[in-house]
């Protein structure tokens, strides 16, 4: 299939309107709020219901700030030094360039938990347990939004793979990384109002003329937008020119999101020391992320790194080692007991006191 999903829920103008990506964050935070309220009540936590909404606000800002800074630091440092004369003025704020990094978002949430715990005299490790249970819900919605946007695409799949997807957004990488492939679009551009001769003329000067590069990118975006808006003729024509890829975003939604949530929710049913769930999340997420990256294409500006692994896999290896370390440390230093969400478990534990 050729990916033709529109990133807009609906449009108010040709270029403005609510997007599925933003909606996924909103839905994730809403579900996190409702789940944390439920957990706090079931666990008979020292955290009052009134504190939950403020806590989720802290976690939301931690996710957004950490996720964006994480992308800039881990994947594209040039954005930090990129300043422009027009909005948003700073490359770090241009979230449409690269987006967010989940590893950075996790670091941001950790910082938010410690800041909120300090402000309200709560156990920060318990707060980490809470966000570890609900965090994968946000990952689930976010990865689905990544698929809708046609970003974070998978590696090239075998032709006989039944569920492969061709992403028109791939053509945006061609001017820099696969220039020779642009010529194959000469039979496509006439469907967006440009003759093949004009297209080849633009390609002849794309490396030396900024105006030609800008016009090429404008046409590439126009092709993508027309497909997203239902141009089936253009969609059919471009299909054979695109790579057949794994839908790694959906694999990630199932593994990093749904599977991880179910594992942690199951663990949280019984009483444990603070930190056990957070440590389990770090380990579980790192393992499934390493596995899922086997299907996800590496960031094109980075490629494969040492031992043929991606940047995401190396960050997850470090995350795995850290998770094992903190799980061991918290098991030795935490003395408090956190109730599980099972009612029978809480009653049984209380009767022992």
Structural class per helix/strand content?
mainly alpha
Average pLDDT, rounded to a whole number, is 89
Question: Strand percentage, roughly?
Answer: under 5%
Q: What is the H-and-E element order?
A: HHHHHHHHHHHH
Distance between the first and last residues' Cα? 61 Å
What would you report as the Rg, rounded to the nearest angstrom?
23 Å
How many H/I helical runs? Answer: 12
Shape: elongated
Uncertain runs are: 347-353
Task: Name the assembly state.
Answer: single chain
Query: How would a crystallographer describe the biggest sheet?
Result: none
Report the count of strand segments: 0
Overall number of structural domains: 2
Helix content: 55-70%
Features:
353 residues, 2 domains, disordered C terminus, elongated, mainly alpha, 57% helix
Secondary-structure blueprint:
Blueprint: H1 20-42, H2 49-74, H3 102-120, H4 124-149, H5 174-177, H6 196-204, H7 210-228, H8 232-238, H9 248-267, H10 276-292, H11 311-333, H12 343-351
Helix pairs in contact: 1-2, 1-4, 2-3, 3-4, 4-9, 4-10, 9-10, 10-11
Description:
- The chain has 353 residues and is an all-alpha fold.
- The chain folds into two domains: 20-156 and 246-351, no CATH class; 168-241, no CATH class.
- It is built from twelve helices and no strands.
- Helix 2 (49-74) runs antiparallel to helix 3.
């Amino acid at each position: 299939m050729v990916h033709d999903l529109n990133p807009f829920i609906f449009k108010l103008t040709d270029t403005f309107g609510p997007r599925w990506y933003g909606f996924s964050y909103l839905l994730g935070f809403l579900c996190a709020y409702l789940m944390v309220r439920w957990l706090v009540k079931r666990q008979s936590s020292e955290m009052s219901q009134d504190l939950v909404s403020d806590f989720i606000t802290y976690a939301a800002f931690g996710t957004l700030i950490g996720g964006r800074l994480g992308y800039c630091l881990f994947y594209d440092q040039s954005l930090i030094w990129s300043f422009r004369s027009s909005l948003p003025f700073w490359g770090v704020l241009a979230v449409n360039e690269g987006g967010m990094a989940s590893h950075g978002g996790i670091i941001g949430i950790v910082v938010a938990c410690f800041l909120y715990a300090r402000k309200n005299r709560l156990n920060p490790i318990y707060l980490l347990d809470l966000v570890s249970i609900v965090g994968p819900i946000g990952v689930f919605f976010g990865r689905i939004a990544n698929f809708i946007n046609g970003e974070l695409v998978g590696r090239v799949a075998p032709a006989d793979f039944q569920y492969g997807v061709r992403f028109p957004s791939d053509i945006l990488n061609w001017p820099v990384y696969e220039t020779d492939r642009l010529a194959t679009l000469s039979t496509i551009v006439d469907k967006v109002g440009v003759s093949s001769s004009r297209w080849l003329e633009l390609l002849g000067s794309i490396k030396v003329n900024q105006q030609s590069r800008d016009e090429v990118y404008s046409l590439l975006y126009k092709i993508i937008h027309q497909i997203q808006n239902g141009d089936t003729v253009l969609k059919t024509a471009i299909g054979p020119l695109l790579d057949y890829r794994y839908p790694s975003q959906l694999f990630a939604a199932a593994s990093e999101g749904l599977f991880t949530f179910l594992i942690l929710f199951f663990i949280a049913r019984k009483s444990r020391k603070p930190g056990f769930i957070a440590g389990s999340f770090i380990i579980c997420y790192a393992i499934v992320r390493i596995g899922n990256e086997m299907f996800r294409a590496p960031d094109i500006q980075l490629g494969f790194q040492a031992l043929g692994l991606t940047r995401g896999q190396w960050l997850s290896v470090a995350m795995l080692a850290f998770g094992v370390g903190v799980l061991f440390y918290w098991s030795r230093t935490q003395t408090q007991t956190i109730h599980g969400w099972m009612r029978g478990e809480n009653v049984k534990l209380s009767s022992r006191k």
